[in-house]
Amino acid sequence: MWWFTTRKSGVNAVNLKELLGFGSYVDAWSWLQKLRRATIRRQREQLSRRVEVNEFFIGGHQASKRGRGAGGKTIVAVAVERRNIKKRIGRIRLHITLDCTAFSLETFILDNVECQRPTLDWGG
């Protein structure tokens, strides 16, 4: 736990496998996921100040379509708290979502950003 919580550069399963002497990568990855889940505060404060929100697609390369139209990709919504000091980012929130509709993104914002019911401009 000490090693996991004190690494500034983060921890990956390969590092954990070598450090703890696990026999397989899968075992190390499974333990790492358990450690990560244990460090999430369920009742954490919402993001505040200036917050930027967007979504992105994550997944492997496919030979057919590219970008938003490609199948087999996971959509992730992200909210980033911006700090004025040297353009650094603050806390973040990530959430896997089923689609990129305004409703999905607005629900994500209301769950994770401290604000009154906003009037959102979707730019379209």
Characterization of this structure:
This protein is an alpha+beta fold. The chain has two domains: 2-38, no CATH class; 50-112, no CATH class. The protein is 31% helix and 22% strand. The chain has helices at residues 2-6, 13-20, 25-38, 102-112, and strands spanning 50-58, 74-82, 89-97. A three-stranded antiparallel beta sheet has the order 1-2-3, with helices on one face. The mean pLDDT is 78.
Principal-axis shape: globular
Helix content, binned percent: 25-40%
Point out poorly predicted stretches: none
Helix tally equals 4
- For the biggest β-sheet, the strand order reads 1-2-3
Q: Roughly what is the average pLDDT, rounded to an integer?
A: 78
Order of helices and strands: HHHEEEH
The assembly state of the depicted protein chains is: single chain
User: What profile does the largest beta sheet have?
Assistant: 3 strands, antiparallel
